[in-house]
Amino acid sequence: MADVIVLADADRPAEQNRATWFGLFLSLFSMIVIRQACRLGSTEPGTTLVLVRETAMFACAGLLLWLIRRKEGLPLRSIGIGTSPLWKSLAWGFVIAIACAVPAVVIVKLTGYGHGAASQSFAKLPLWLIFMLVVRAGVVEELSSADTPSIACRGWAWENHCPG
What we know:
Elements: H1 14-41, H2 47-71, H3 86-111, H4 117-123, H5 127-139, H6 154-161
Helix pairs in contact: 1-2, 1-6, 2-5
């Protein structure tokens, strides 16, 4: 990305460096820690536990955005947010969703995928919570990915610590 300015650690204030390293840790490990902590609570998650888990993951994404803007002083463009018009992102999202859904339906029908014990836990959750889970997976996890205009863990880490 041409509009991202990479500064050497020596040129950055200590508080900004601490925020960057905390953001790196948060982006790489927060979802894993939250997932494992919720698994300690129950191996068969109910509505409340899934809601707590998803809310915690959204909160980590919000904290990461706050760190980028307020502590590092970087624009959200530095992680790919706002680099493309919203209509274009939504149009490509729709095209890609259709392109993924068609083969997925065919694979599910041919293999009988989704009828095991693990998929039964989803059947117990309300539809609004499954929708929240899917949105979180598409937004929060991709916040990590700098190549997409969404929020992110791996991408933020990549953009901030692997320049070039």
